[in-house]
Amino acid sequence: MTARTPVRPFRSRDWFANPERADMTALYLERFMNYGITPAELQSGRPIIGIAQSGSDLSPCNRIHVELATRVRDGIRDAGGIPMEFPLHPIFENCRRPTAALDRNLAYLGLVEILNGYPIDAVVLTTGCDKTTPSQLMAAATMDLPAIVLSGGPMLDGWHEGELVGSGTVIWRARRKLAAGEIDEAEFLAQACASAPSAGHCNSMGTASTMNSIAEGLGMSLPGCAMIPAPYRERGQIAYETGARAVEIAYEDLRPSCILTRQAFLNAMALTIAIGGSSNAQPHIVAMARHAGVEITPDDWRAVHDLPLLVNMQPAGRYLSERFHRAGGIPAVLTELLAVGRIDGNVSTITGRTLAENVAGRTATDREVIRPYADPLLPDAGFLVLKGNLFDFAIMKTSVISDAFRSRYLSRPGHEGVFEARAVVFDGSDDYHHRINDPALAIDENCILVIRGSGPIGWPGSAEVVNMQPPDALIRQGISSLPTLGDGRQSGTSDSPSILNASPESAAGGGLAWLRTGDMLRIDLNAGACNALVEPAEIARRLAEAPPPIPVSRTPWEEIYREKTGQLAEGAVLEMALKYRQVGDEVPRHNH
Ligand code: FES
Ligand code: MG
């Protein structure tokens, strides 16, 4: 390895080769020796590359990273760096109660402290399950140390009795079949297990695939990284290449602030729509952008609303990630968007080249899965932004609106896109599960199911509960979905066209707090309006009543989270954290 000079002196020098505090050098060096590393290595002037390890037995979607880290280390060593792997707070979307949303900001805080407090010059961010991607990118933005994303990759495609079964999506569909009496619980379990055939994160275009695609679209990973299935040989190969590149970005001082620009986020938003990405992309993109000092407004979402759906993947389409990868993956989608000028190819990326240079020549090889821009699966497939007297902001993912839903609610001649429905209001998901089949509620196809108490403060954390399914009796009549609305979120794997992420939430004084079962709602998708048809005097009267109940905090973090976290419209970030920028520019003072 030829001697190279870093653009900026490595911060690890301040620990291991600091002439002003030579008294500290021995203390900083000695304990690293106990796994065989030598003082000569740590004092060689080579960069120390952190591997932020998100995989563990508690994070099965990311567990592949425990093995991939071997190849990352190989890449780091071969490129002249010194790897140091460390654990992150685990995040597992499906299993974490009361919600993994609590973990995003906690893992963010943890990673900021690690990167700030230890001798790390650059870091490989190992991403996978939903919130593991935004939490690490948020921390990288706060620190502004050179950082590169390595996705763990999705599972192989799931098959059950000759049908593709996508993770998550199969759960929502099988639940409806269970309610209709079409399958039993054993069959439900068989379908769910078939959807998860290998190591990796969700193989549908749920939040995990969406966020890893966004990381690639932002330019924070090597091209093609997001969609390589976890078990493929290319996954180990790109782990090696990512480790090697991490050393180069340390020398080049290529930091997140060079890449996470407003234009990069606008590109990522366009990509989100073209891939049929998760509604969770909205708060996560806003959160990452705000930590990077970039403002994303509701109008920015409106500006990408007319983008078409190009990627034919569940839940909006048919296929799964393995086939999407073989069809060309994210580089091929970016090529489509670049060709029509819907993204800016001049942005900088982690390769040191522009986005356009990264994807040059990478076109789709399977038009069944990646459609040409001129012949999309759906036109105008973006998130609709709604507001009204119940909330200031909510979104609706239009790419999952089914033909049946469209014809029942959105196709009245002369009133296209406009419908009225009677609200049935639930206080959290326990209330929903207890009462949804209660005949006294008289739920019919003219109802909208509303859930509150499911936002960042109310839950706490904001839960994926808005995709409420209709009463069993209605499903048996063939009505498999009703309009839904809530101040929580829903799984990116859900095919429900809910109105969700409503902000401010009920628990923060939003209008859902005064909504009552029986109120009529008027939803005008053309105007982006959702209003309860309730007189102002009546609203005022209800506001004098006690607000809806929310559960008490059960852990210290839940209490801190509720105190410091903002609303989903603003990314549900720790608002006090935003003032900390470029923390990595200085090293903390010595500990003795
Ligand atoms: Fe972890 Fe879907 S549950 S990726
Ligand atoms: Mg989820």
TrEMBL record:
Annotated Polar residues bias: 490-504
Residue ranges constituting the Dihydroxy-acid/6-phosphogluconate dehydratase C-terminal domain according to the UniProt record: 368-572
SUPFAM superfamilies for the chain: IlvD/EDD N-terminal domain-like, LeuD/IlvD-like
Region of interest: Disordered: 485-504
Keyword field contains Ribonucleoprotein: no
Family the UniProt entry places it in: Belongs to the IlvD/Edd family.
Name the record gives this protein: Dihydroxy-acid dehydratase family protein
Source species of the chain: Sandaracinobacter neustonicus
